[in-house]
Design goal:
It comes from Sphaerodactylus townsendi. The chain has 34 helices and five strands. The chain has helices spanning about 10-20, 25-45, 55-70, 75-90, 100-110, 115-125, 135-150, 155-175, 180-185, 190-200, 205-215, 225-235, 245-260, 260-265, 270-280, 305-320, 320-335, 340-355, 360-365, 365-375, 385-400, 405-420, 425-440, 445-450, 450-475, 475-495, 500-515, 520-540, 540-560, 570-585, 595-605, 615-620, 645-660, 670-680; strands spanning about 610-615, 625-635, 635-640, 685, 690. The strands form two sheets. The chain has a three-stranded antiparallel sheet, covered by helices on one side. Strand 2 (about 625-635) and strand 3 (about 635-640) form a beta hairpin.
Length: about 700
């Protein structure tokens, strides 16, 4: 707060003093450098132009002097970042670089005998490849010569790596300039060499630059595509490298399947080698004694090779199409499914799930044999293979709906219900219930009706058993899924669910009343959803006997709404449940509006956080939850915190729903809702960035 209140001009002076002062502790100097760069990045226009010309000139020469005096390389890099930031802001609208001394320093340093200065020049150029402004064409040969020379610096690996990154940054910054890309094509072998070398120095920054090129300027890779792909394959297959590096190497190939599919299809041999590589990664699973009955669905370990391999396969199948991918992968999968080691069978089934979307057309013709094969694995001796079989069935039920349901309803429903009986393996039970949800969501009503009795019997007995287990042992995983399965069946069966209503409603109300502990929030939310979906399915007449009880339970939760944490899963379930109750009760719902509208308006008013970050800040942000980034080039990214956006969208839908159902009964809220909604119809443009 104290820092924020210092005027901008004084900040520059003080920060520069701290950076310059070699007697100050290293940490304080580094912090001052970071703050100065941020100040120039965020508030340049407010602060810099108002400084007297001699102060501006002083700052420029001071910074260049500090670089030359600095002995610590990490500190020197931070000062180079300040110089790059200042240079970025000193290019006027016509592209004139208003800091000629900065350019001269760059040229002098890059050919200096002092390695530290050569590093500094490359770092500044990497950070701001647009530094030559409208003189770029004039300096093009010099730039190219300088990069080639640095890439061939035998004695200094750091210079080789930095120049490769700088070359990549320059190519990315000029992605629309075809003559330039052509002119710089002969730098690619040097970049590839640096990728290879840096990976074995435990540095993946050059490899990340290659992924960016594959994503943004794939055409730059065309003259040396074979070499690029071969290198990526070799790195991906090398188990001496870290998982992260191997996954990044695979990412080059997968990204090209999305951004340059036609180019990649010409290198069929590489694709044919990349596929087994992904499958090998998918086999990289850990034995885990507690897996079968762990009650927490831990998030997939997104850094794991297995998850990365599966996602790569899915994307590649979508990018290159099933005509190419299915014949290449089919035999591999068949062999894996016959392997005595459970990890291979698991990977084979997960691969089948992953390629369904991309190989849709080709798999449709042989779906019958695929389904019969997968169903066999619901009987596999290993629980994690049975889990993977449930996963494949659930995925196919979504990918091939509704044809899948029409063709295979009999065998699939029977097999999933049987798998749900697997009392010794909760994770398998829960996943069978999840597959059943996918199946019923897209199942035509007429197909489901003949199975209702049997479905309800199984779901009810499982629910009763699991409520008992919840009371005795506190386990909830299967119950969470079963409650959603019940909701899904009711949603599809509609009025045909009436005869079973009294079988479920007392237990469901009991869960909402008693599942109040923090770890049961998701169960409670799903149960609230289930009750409201059943109510909607059976209609007002049947539901009225419980309507007032249910409304009281909801109101009780609603009163505690303000105490709920922002990430409480109950919030989104509650908001949707209120809207369903409104549909069921019609005009009678009006009396509840005063309680419902407050939290709903609060959620609909969430303002997403946005930020403009440069590469340095990004490195600290990457692990932060809920942020998504768009690369704007020039080492800058635009970030938006997406957490909360989905809830905001749901809340807006619900407001519309209330207005539609209650008509004139909604009148007193019209003004505040309109005030909230109208601005949301606009996109905000700010400095050419889309918010």
């Amino acid at each position: 707060e104290t820092y924020e209140n210092i005027p901008g001009q004084s900040k520059i002076t003080f920060l520069l003093q701290a950076v310059r002062n070699a007697t100050v502790a290293e940490e304080a100097r580094q912090m001052a450098a970071v703050l100065l760069r941020r100040l120039l990045s965020a508030s340049f226009e407010e602060v810099y132009p108002t400084l007297p010309p001699e102060v501006q000139a002083g700052i420029k020469s001071e910074l260049l002097l500090i670089i030359q005096m600095e002995t610590q390389s990490s500190m020197r890099r931070k000062i180079c970042d300040i110089v790059a930031e200042l240079a970025r802001n000193l290019i006027d609208e016509d592209g004139n670089n208003q800091w000629p001394e900065g350019l001269k320093f760059l040229f002098d340093s890059v050919s200096s005998q002092n390695v530290g200065l050569r590093e500094a020049a490359l770092h500044i150029f990497w950070n701001f490849p647009g530094i030559f402004g409208n003189q770029q064409q004039h300096y093009l040969e010099v730039v190219k010569r300088m990069l080639v020379q640095c890439m061939q610096d035998e004695e200094n690996p750091t210079i080789r790596m930095l120049s490769a990154r700088a070359a990549a940054a320059f190519v990315l910054a000029n992605d629309q300039n075809l003559p330039l890309l052509k002119h710089f094509a002969d730098l690619l072998p040097g970049i590839l060499q640096a990728v290879n070398e840096s990976c074995y120095q435990n540095d993946d920054s050059v490899l990340k630059s290659l992924v960016e090129i594959a994503d943004t300027v794939p055409k730059y890779l065309r003259p040396h595509l074979e070499a690029t792909l071969q290198l990526s394959l070799t790195l991906c297959a090398d188990t001496n490298l870290s998982n992260m590096q191997r996954q990044l190497a695979l990412e080059v190939i997968v990204t090209l399947s999305e951004t340059a599919a036609a180019m990649l299809r010409r290198h069929i041999n590489i694709v044919a080698q990349a596929i087994p590589q992904m499958l090998t990664m998918m086999v990289d699973l850990e034995e885990d004694e507690d897996w079968a009955n762990s009650d927490e669905l831990e998030d997939d370990d997104f850094d794991s090779n297995a998850v990365a391999g599966e996602s790569a396969l899915d994307r590649m199948a979508c990018g290159l199409g099933g005509k190419l991918v299915l014949p290449m992968i089919k035999e591999h999968i068949m062999q894996m499914l016959q392997n005595p080691d459970w990890k291979y069978r698991h990977a084979g089934l997960m691969a089948l799930s992953a390629i369904g979307e991309g190989c849709h057309q080709q798999m449709e013709g042989i779906l019958n044999e695929i389904v019969n094969l997968v169903l066999l694995f619901l009987q596999d001796p290993h629980p994690r293979v049975r889990y993977a079989a449930c996963n494949a069935i659930g995925q196919m039920a979504t990918d091939f709906a509704p044809g899948f349901q029409k063709k295979f309803h009999e065998k699939v429903i029977a097999a999933l219900l049987q798998t749900m009986e697997d009392q010794d393996n909760q994770r398998v039970q829960a996943h069978a219930a999840a597959a059943l949800i996918n199946f019923t969501e897209d199942c035509p009503k007429s197909l489901l009706i003949p199975y209702l009795d049997n479905l309800v019997k199984h779901l009810h007995s499982t629910m009763v058993l699991k409520i008992q287990e919840l009371i005795e042992k506190g386990t909830k995983l299967v119950l969470e899924q079963v409650v959603t399965s019940i909701a899904s069946v009711a949603d599809t069966a509609e009025e045909k669910f009436v005869p079973y209503y009294d079988l479920f409603m007392p237990s469901l109300k009991h869960i909402v009343e008693n599942a109040v502990q923090k770890e049961l929030r998701l169960l409670r939310g799903k149960t609230i959803e289930c009750i409201s979906l059943i109510g909607l399915a059976v209609g007002k007449e049947k539901f009225m006997q419980d309507a007032s009880d249910v409304m009281q339970l909801l109101l009780k939760t609603q009163t505690a709404f303000n105490d709920l944490e922002d990430d409480d899963p109950q919030i989104s379930y509650m908001i949707s449940a209120w809207a369903r109750m409104c549909k069921i009760l019609g005009k009678e719902f009006q009396q509840y509006l005063p309680v419902v509208m407050g939290p709903l308006m609060k959620t609909a008013s969430i303002k997403p956080e946005v930020a403009l970050l440069d590469t340095q800040d990004m490195e600290n942000m990457s692990d932060d939850d809920g942020w998504e980034f768009v690369n704007l080039g020039d080492q800058q990214s635009f970030g938006i915190k997406t957490a909360g956006l989905e809830e905001k969208a749901t809340a807006c839908q619900m407001l519309v729903c209330y207005a539609k159902e209650l008509k004139e009964g909604f009148v007193e809220y019209t003004e505040q809702v309109v005030k909230l909604m109208v601005p949301l119809l606009k996109f905000y443009f700010h400095d050419d960035i889309l918010y």
